[in-house]
Amino acid sequence: MAAQIDIDEVHWLLDIVQCLDVGVIVLDRQYRVEVWNSFMENHSGMGPSQVYGKTLFELFGEVDEAWFRRKADSVLQLGTRAFSLWEQRPYLLHFKNYQPITGHEDFMYQNVTFLPLVGAKGEVEHLCVVIYDVTAVAILKKQLAARGGQ
Q1: Locate the PAS domain: which residues (predicted)?
Q2: Which CATH architecture has domain 2-146?
């Protein structure tokens, strides 16, 4: 019975991950995609079957590989989170901006969280990359700064 509960929990957890309005990517230690949620599918135009097993760098040439590896390696080695804010780097993945109100921006501004994922043996085995669309906030902050406020 306990195994059935675990399987049921996995199913609804996967449903939650698919419904989140943030991008969720899980990479193995070689940066190959293992999880790709519907946010990623909708904004990249690529489904899970197209990305599974490919490296993030194969899929997105715009990713600064050296920067990404430094960020990810610290997460994988230390087992701690890392972050990237749109003010430091406007985006990780160049997605079009589809927001109707803020549609005058060409791309989606993104905050990114890098999370270590610990396996059953207690070691960090995967990296979870969470991408937040912060375009509306970025535009408002830029407009405020342009008006002399901050």
Answers
A1: 9-79
A2: 2-Layer Sandwich (3.30)
